[in-house]
């Protein structure tokens, strides 16, 4: 007979109490006892959180270890001293050097060369999904609704006179996370589209149900419209900035312009760029020598900004949480909630960030 989690309370009452505790405190709660550790890993707890309308955004990072070459998962975790740190998730396997990952709800989908892994972020357990139907290089992976769109280079076969020819061509392969299955046939890029083969894409985002693919060659930046299975050239205004490490919040694209030390925003409804106000001094001081930066959607009206910094002669990786507010007249203002050194930067390269809802 199992002992109650708390002797003086029914287990259902304890579950209700724990469901209301911030998710960031669960690692500490799991140290109380084996019973609490099992509760923290149980679907029952997260089902109850969902019923209560309680959810939080947790941020995961993929870091490359320069010594070993391994691509490992880390989670942004608030320590007892109040500071946020990136700590390794040792129960999750390494990601392929050619892999990519996206989040759907409380799960992270990892697309390697052919294999697909699903990380359940409520329990940090892993399961396999059906392999990618065909090998693809230089993959960009994005989510619209419950479907994952994997865009990359794939072999295409066609008949020329009497012989089979094999060529590389951009293709879109779609994975349905509800049915856990792939679409039967890949969607190929139209021959008249100026989409180059190879690692030309510098970033990709989803806005208003469309996938925007930015390239280092401006004339090749393109937009994929899944509903119409159609490709378009990117709008000139959006394509005019060298945005990279961008994120989208409420269908507005944000990125850190390192050369100008500002956070820029692009609203597709207005069709123009603007600068997020209120961050000028912070960005000028903190990111003065940053050679790279990444923004991540970190919940409603919030983003996380990652950037490198030197402190006491050592390389560090910092993270700042920025609250966003659209004021009267349409101006967007930002306010830094906190900025912490999250990990030493000597040994690691930042590869990817994903935020999940748990």
UniProtKB/TrEMBL annotation:
Residues 9-49 form the F-box domain. CDD domains: F-box_AtAFR-like. It holds the Pfam family F-box. Coiled coil: none annotated. This is F-box/kelch-repeat protein At4g38940-like.
């Amino acid at each position: 007979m199992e002992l109650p989690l708390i002797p003086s309370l029914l287990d259902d009452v304890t579950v209700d109490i724990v469901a209301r505790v911030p998710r960031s405190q669960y690692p500490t709660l799991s140290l109380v006892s084996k019973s609490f550790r099992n509760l923290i890993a149980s679907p029952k707890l997260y089902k109850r959180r969902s019923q209560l309308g309680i959810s939080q955004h947790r941020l995961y990072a993929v870091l490359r270890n320069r010594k070993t070459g391994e691509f490992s998962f880390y989670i942004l975790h608030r320590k007892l001293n109040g500071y946020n740190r990136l700590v390794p998730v040792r129960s999750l396997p390494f990601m392929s050097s050619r892999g990519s990952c996206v989040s759907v709800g409380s799960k992270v989908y990892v697309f390697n060369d052919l294999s697909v892994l699903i990380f359940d972020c409520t329990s940090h357990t892993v399961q396999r999904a059906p392999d990618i139907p065909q090998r693809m290089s230089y993959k960009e992976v994005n989510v619209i609704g419950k479907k994952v769109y994997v865009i990359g280079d794939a072999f295409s076969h066609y008949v020329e006179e009497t012989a089979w020819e094999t060529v590389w061509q951009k293709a879109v392969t779609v994975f349905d996370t509800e049915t856990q299955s792939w679409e039967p046939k890949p969607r190929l890029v139209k021959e008249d589209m100026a989409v180059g083969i190879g690692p030309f894409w510098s970033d990709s985002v989803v806005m208003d149900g469309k996938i925007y693919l930015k390239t280092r060659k401006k004339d090749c930046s393109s937009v994929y419209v899944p509903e119409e299975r159609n490709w378009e050239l990117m709008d000139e205004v959006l394509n005019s900035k060298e945005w990279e490490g961008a994120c989208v919040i409420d269908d507005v694209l944000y990125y850190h312009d390192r050369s100008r030390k500002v956070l820029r925003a692009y609203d597709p409804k207005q069709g123009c760029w603007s600068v997020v106000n209120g961050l000028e001094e912070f960005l000028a001081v903190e990111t003065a020598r940053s050679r790279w930066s990444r923004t991540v959607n970190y919940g409603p009206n919030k983003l996380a900004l990652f950037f490198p910094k030197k402190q006491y002669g050592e390389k560090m990786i910092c993270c700042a949480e920025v609250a966003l507010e659209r004021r009267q007249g349409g101006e967007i203002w930002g306010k830094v909630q906190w900025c912490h050194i999250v990990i030493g930067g000597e040994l690691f390269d930042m590869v990817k960030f994903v935020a999940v809802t748990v």
